[in-house]
Amino acid sequence: MSRLARRRVLVPAAAPGDRVRLDAAQVHHLLHVLRAVPGEVVTAMDAAGRSFRAVLEGSGEILIEALVSEPMPQGPVLLVAPPKGARMAWLVEKAVELGAGEIRPVVTSRGAVKPGGEAQVARWQRVAEAAVKQSGAAPPGIRPMAPLPEALQGLAGPLWIAHPAPEALPLRCALEAPSGVPAFAVGPEGGWTGAELKLLTDAGGRCVTLGPRILRIETAALACLLAWEPVRPRPILPA
Ligand code: SAM
Fold first, then answer.
1. Where are the extended beta strands (E) located within 28-168?
2. How many angstroms does the Cα of residue 131 sit away from the middle of ligand 1?
């Protein structure tokens, strides 16, 4: 088996034999923060989440030598009303570590965070990239904040609505029957409104409970991702 080198870099697309120029921020981080040296082997991860053995060159380029690992299977979609301030960055970091395939921040009536344009999504994407490098997770898509009807478009698997209602199905029971990669919807601190619950259920969603306690948005989001995460080791290719 090939071992994955601990130091990871992100590249848009790659194939063995490619020489890829790293962006200035990654070169700086590798050479001046991690003190990597030219000739060192690093792991390059492409946008599809595949990992390659690569050699760092003095010019700030890497030479891709071989594919060593296929991406892990696609993770769940997380629709979430972002919590305030640094808590959303924390949520993004942890959601990436726990294998979220895509994060779709949603605008809700009771949500505390308003859409903040390109700068807002770029900030979350930077956090996600750092988490990908640290954890080896496949890079998730992170969308700009959007109204619920837009965020609900194009979901392929079952939709589970986190909602602390007495009639909601326990999440563990909901996930017992395998039925494709799910999407989870987590509401704002004030909870979903009736109109939002209707939109979600009209889109095929069913309410699930995460237990008898009221969880913060980020706790609820991570509980959903963790409940789904099956034991699935990353496929490592033979050397
Ligand atoms: N008072 C709000 C309510 O009753 O919905 C509490 C909102 S909670 C702080 C924020 C979000 O986390 C909720 O909208 C829901 O999506 C999720 N959540 C928190 N605790 C939950 C639980 N025990 N079961 C299911 N979802 C939960």
1. 41-45, 51-56, 61-69, 77-80, 102-107, 141-142, 146-147, 159-162
2. 26
